[in-house]
């Protein structure tokens, strides 16, 4: 739980913690160091912050000094009790100042860039106290600058920035609940509050290392501690620094007992980056329940749901919470405690599972050790029984077993360490939450309850599915065959005796598109059996027998040319030198009910011109040319339409179906591989093998629509013009595989429309002329 009680800036236990808008906590003294002024607010800095070395600052008015002291944490009395006193070695006190270096003194410009701490938080450099001014006055000037100019503070954990209002750091609420838990924790450990805040020795204030190097020198003018490396790098003895005086660093701070000194005696200030102890006689006094900061002596009585903060009754009557949704403080306190308790139950269950999982992992460790020793003993016994020629090969085989064992051990140890870390974090969070739930301060609890609930929920979510499963198996898939002849000794190696595992179908990647299906699979995890390839089998779409459709090493396969509106069953198995493995589970795939296709640019005549994503066709020749569709039909009923976009000089376009080998340089239907209807502006004919039949009145023009109905269930082909059947059924006894086809010349342009349901309300057929 100690990690929960440490400040993310200084790394020590919290001192006077405040709650940032992001629900994270930070020490109040640390908040002063990471609060920065934006460049736009530089010109508004008050005169006491722009001091040259040797210059005297004008003392602020008494009332201003008092207010500034209160804003910075208690004025002179807090200074004496908490170790915030001034002095040459008071680096902690100077961290609160936002003074700027003088150009005539040290060469710094009017704006001093912020330093960076190891966790990325911007920290203001430490500056000397202005001569002739008290520590409280300097601190008051700093806090006055924070409240009057454009200032902001960045959270050291989530890096969210928040602007400070006119109240400065006083605008953030004190986390009294966390402060009380820290005091109880220190008492339980038998240490005085503040004992861990001060470092044993003075450390460098500019080091990038963690922890910083011990300080080797202190510049009296800059009031900055340097290690030997940082002194050469940041404070060379030349230029503006030539006249600066370097002295030995100050002695270590006073022992923790000094924190309990009377208020009239100032404790020795710390020069480290740790937070100052709030200490004093008040530290051991009984903690009082907080009152409303905006209305003195008024106790909290309600909880504002909109602002997520406790309020008093005057805040509801006079303040900004009058129109907000509020709830009774006690009821909300109990509700949030119940939510936190419920979330803790989930984390507790996961922690229990994690402990059981650690026991399982340790058992696997023992099994791996035992199995590894067994395999080594068996290997040694077999190799010793062979002739001297086996000696050279024995070392190689032992190496393989050892590497396999070490790999398994490493995987399990890594998993143990990872799980132990998560378990320790969850346990610490649980202990901290249980301590929080012991509190009887509703307002203090509600200040942090939302953030704790979210953290507990996130802690529960980190135990994702599969996190509590071993990554390796304790079994060794190694078998030595001692039967080979002496001539094969130099090729002696472990052989695989196990059959390949069952492939796992990846259903999220299996899909159908039009009349094609795509299947994907993979080998199971933690499987070391070699796989030479896979065999994919598919039935006929009508519940028939399976047949092989793919054999190879790929784990993704697409099968085209299937029947539309059909249900297929598929399965896969692996094979290796040891034999064929078992089949996977059977997956059921449904092809599309209707056909979506376009004109095929690869199968059309070279004079055919396609556009509109291959859905519109015309021709560059006065002779008839053929183009086919991209789909092929052998089963079911299919309907598509062709819209006449252009019709000039009374040409004779032909519509129908054909085999893939149809002639492309003549009118559709003139050979025995096409069945078509050709039509002009007055009449139409059916044609197959250059035989013209069933002349029917009624032709096409610009804007007309020609429909083609291929019913392979009834083995018929029928044509329609503008929704009316053109003549009788054109062809019967149609059987086989057919592709949509069209022939036209340069005087015609048509657009293909597919994906249509088979119509049921088409008009009656027109009577043929002969």
From TrEMBL:
<dbReference type="InterPro" id="IPR001841">
    <property type="entry name" value="Znf_RING"/>
</dbReference>
<dbReference type="GO" id="GO:0008270">
    <property type="term" value="F:zinc ion binding"/>
</dbReference>
<dbReference type="GO" id="GO:2000060">
    <property type="term" value="P:positive regulation of ubiquitin-dependent protein catabolic process"/>
</dbReference>
<feature type="domain" description="B box-type">
    <location>
        <begin position="287"/>
        <end position="329"/>
    </location>
</feature>
<dbReference type="InterPro" id="IPR017903">
    <property type="entry name" value="COS_domain"/>
</dbReference>
<dbReference type="GO" id="GO:0005737">
    <property type="term" value="C:cytoplasm"/>
</dbReference>
<feature type="domain" description="Fibronectin type-III">
    <location>
        <begin position="500"/>
        <end position="594"/>
    </location>
</feature>
<dbReference type="Pfam" id="PF00643">
    <property type="entry name" value="zf-B_box"/>
</dbReference>
<dbReference type="Pfam" id="PF00041">
    <property type="entry name" value="fn3"/>
</dbReference>
<keyword id="KW-0206">Cytoskeleton</keyword>
<dbReference type="InterPro" id="IPR043136">
    <property type="entry name" value="B30.2/SPRY_sf"/>
</dbReference>
<feature type="compositionally biased region" description="Low complexity">
    <location>
        <begin position="54"/>
        <end position="70"/>
    </location>
</feature>
<keyword id="KW-0963">Cytoplasm</keyword>
<keyword id="KW-0677">Repeat</keyword>
<dbReference type="InterPro" id="IPR013083">
    <property type="entry name" value="Znf_RING/FYVE/PHD"/>
</dbReference>
<protein>
    <submittedName>
        <fullName>Tripartite motif containing 67</fullName>
    </submittedName>
</protein>
<feature type="domain" description="B box-type">
    <location>
        <begin position="206"/>
        <end position="249"/>
    </location>
</feature>
<dbReference type="InterPro" id="IPR001870">
    <property type="entry name" value="B30.2/SPRY"/>
</dbReference>
<feature type="region of interest" description="Disordered">
    <location>
        <begin position="245"/>
        <end position="279"/>
    </location>
</feature>
<dbReference type="InterPro" id="IPR003961">
    <property type="entry name" value="FN3_dom"/>
</dbReference>
<dbReference type="InterPro" id="IPR036116">
    <property type="entry name" value="FN3_sf"/>
</dbReference>
<dbReference type="InterPro" id="IPR000315">
    <property type="entry name" value="Znf_B-box"/>
</dbReference>
<dbReference type="InterPro" id="IPR017907">
    <property type="entry name" value="Znf_RING_CS"/>
</dbReference>
<keyword id="KW-0863">Zinc-finger</keyword>
<dbReference type="Pfam" id="PF00622">
    <property type="entry name" value="SPRY"/>
</dbReference>
<feature type="region of interest" description="Disordered">
    <location>
        <begin position="41"/>
        <end position="70"/>
    </location>
</feature>
<feature type="domain" description="B30.2/SPRY">
    <location>
        <begin position="576"/>
        <end position="767"/>
    </location>
</feature>
<keyword id="KW-0175">Coiled coil</keyword>
<dbReference type="InterPro" id="IPR003877">
    <property type="entry name" value="SPRY_dom"/>
</dbReference>
<dbReference type="GO" id="GO:0005856">
    <property type="term" value="C:cytoskeleton"/>
</dbReference>
<dbReference type="InterPro" id="IPR013783">
    <property type="entry name" value="Ig-like_fold"/>
</dbReference>
<keyword id="KW-0862">Zinc</keyword>
<dbReference type="GO" id="GO:0010976">
    <property type="term" value="P:positive regulation of neuron projection development"/>
</dbReference>
<feature type="domain" description="COS">
    <location>
        <begin position="437"/>
        <end position="495"/>
    </location>
</feature>
<dbReference type="GO" id="GO:0046580">
    <property type="term" value="P:negative regulation of Ras protein signal transduction"/>
</dbReference>
<feature type="compositionally biased region" description="Low complexity">
    <location>
        <begin position="257"/>
        <end position="269"/>
    </location>
</feature>
<dbReference type="InterPro" id="IPR013320">
    <property type="entry name" value="ConA-like_dom_sf"/>
</dbReference>
<dbReference type="InterPro" id="IPR003649">
    <property type="entry name" value="Bbox_C"/>
</dbReference>
<dbReference type="Pfam" id="PF22586">
    <property type="entry name" value="ANCHR-like_BBOX"/>
</dbReference>
<keyword id="KW-0479">Metal-binding</keyword>
<dbReference type="InterPro" id="IPR050617">
    <property type="entry name" value="E3_ligase_FN3/SPRY"/>
</dbReference>
């Amino acid at each position: 739980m100690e990690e929960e009680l440490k400040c993310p800036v200084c790394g020590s236990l919290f001192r006077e913690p405040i709650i940032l808008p992001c629900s994270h906590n930070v020490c109040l003294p640390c908040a002063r160091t990471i609060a920065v002024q934006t460049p736009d607010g530089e010109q508004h800095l008050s005169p006491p912050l722009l001091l040259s070395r040797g210059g005297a600052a004008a003392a602020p008015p008494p009332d201003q000094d008092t207010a500034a002291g209160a804003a910075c944490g208690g004025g002179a009395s807090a200074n004496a009790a908490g170790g915030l006193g001034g002095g040459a070695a008071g680096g902690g006190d100077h961290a609160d100042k936002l003074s700027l270096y003088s150009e005539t003194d040290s060469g710094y410009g009017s704006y001093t860039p912020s330093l960076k701490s190891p966790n990325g938080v911007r920290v203001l450099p430490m500056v000397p106290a202005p001569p002739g001014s008290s520590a409280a006055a300097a601190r008051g000037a700093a806090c006055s600058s924070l409240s009057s100019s454009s200032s902001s503070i960045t959270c050291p954990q989530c890096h969210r920035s928040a602007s400070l209002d006119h109240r400065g750091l006083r605008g953030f609420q004190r986390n009294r609940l966390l402060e009380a838990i820290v005091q109880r924790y220190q008492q339980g450990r038998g240490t005085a509050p503040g004992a861990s805040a001060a470092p044993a020795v003075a450390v460098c204030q500019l080091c990038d290392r963690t922890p910083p190097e011990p300080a080797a020198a202190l510049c009296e003018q800059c009031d900055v501690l340097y290690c030997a490396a940082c002194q050469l790098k940041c404070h060379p003895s030349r230029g503006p620094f030539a006249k600066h005086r370097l002295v030995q660093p100050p002695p270590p701070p006073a022992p923790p007992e000094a924190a309990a000194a009377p208020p009239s005696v100032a404790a020795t200030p710390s020069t480290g980056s740790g937070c100052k102890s709030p200490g004093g006689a008040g530290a051991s006094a009984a903690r009082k329940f907080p009152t409303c900061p905006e209305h003195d002596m008024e106790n909290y009585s309600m909880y504002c749901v909109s602002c997520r903060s406790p309020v008093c009754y005057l805040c509801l009557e006079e303040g900004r919470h009058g129109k907000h949704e509020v709830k009774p403080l006690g009821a909300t306190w109990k509700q949030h405690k119940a939510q936190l308790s419920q979330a803790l139950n989930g984390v507790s269950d996961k922690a229990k599972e994690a402990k059981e999982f650690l026991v399982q992992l340790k058992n696997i460790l023992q099994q791996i050790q035992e199995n590894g020793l067994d395999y080594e003993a068996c290997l040694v016994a077999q190799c010793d029984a062979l002739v001297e020629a086996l000696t050279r090969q024995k070392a190689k085989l032992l190496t393989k077993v050892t590497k396999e064992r070490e790999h398994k051990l490493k995987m399990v140890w890594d998993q143990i360490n990872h799980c132990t870390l998560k378990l320790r974090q969850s346990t610490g969070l649980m202990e901290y939450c249980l301590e929080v739930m012991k509190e009887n301060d509703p307002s203090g609890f509600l200040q942090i309850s939302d953030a704790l609930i979210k953290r507990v929920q996130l802690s529960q979510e980190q135990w994702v599915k599969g996190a509590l499963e071993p990554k390796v198996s304790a079994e060794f898939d190694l078998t030595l065959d001692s039967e080979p002849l002496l001539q094969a000794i130099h090729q002696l190696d472990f052989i695989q005796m196990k059959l390949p595992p069952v492939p796992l179908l990846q259903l999220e990647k299996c899909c159908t598109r039009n009349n094609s299906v795509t299947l994907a699979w993979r080998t199971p995890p933690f499987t070391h059996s070699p796989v030479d390839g896979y065999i994919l089998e598919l039935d006929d779409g009508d519940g028939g027998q399976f047949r092989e459709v793919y054999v190879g090493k790929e784990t993704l396969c697409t099968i085209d040319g299937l029947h539309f509106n059909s249900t297929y069953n598929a399965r896969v198995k692996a094979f290796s030198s040891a034999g064929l493995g078992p089949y996977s589970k059977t997956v059921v795939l449904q092809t599309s009910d209707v056909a979506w296709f376009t004109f095929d640019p690869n199968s059309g005549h070279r004079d055919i011109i396609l556009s509109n994503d291959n859905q519109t066709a015309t021709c560059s020749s006065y002779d008839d040319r053929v183009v086919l569709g991209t789909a092929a039909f052998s089963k079911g009923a299919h309907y598509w339409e062709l819209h006449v976009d252009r019709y000039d000089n009374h040409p004779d376009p032909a519509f129908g179906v054909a085999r893939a080998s149809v002639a492309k340089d003549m009118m559709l239907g003139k050979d025995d591989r096409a069945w078509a209807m050709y039509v002009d502006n007055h009449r139409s004919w059916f044609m197959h093998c250059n035989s013209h039949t069933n002349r029917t009145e009624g032709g096409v023009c610009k804007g007309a629509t020609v429909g083609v109905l291929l019913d392979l269930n009834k083995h018929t082909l029928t044509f329609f013009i503008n929704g009316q059947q053109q003549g009788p059924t054109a062809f019967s006894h149609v059987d086989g595989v057919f592709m949509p086809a069209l022939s036209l010349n340069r005087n015609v342009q048509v657009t293909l429309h597919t994906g249509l349901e088979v119509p049921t309300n088409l008009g009656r057929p027109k009577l043929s002329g002969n």
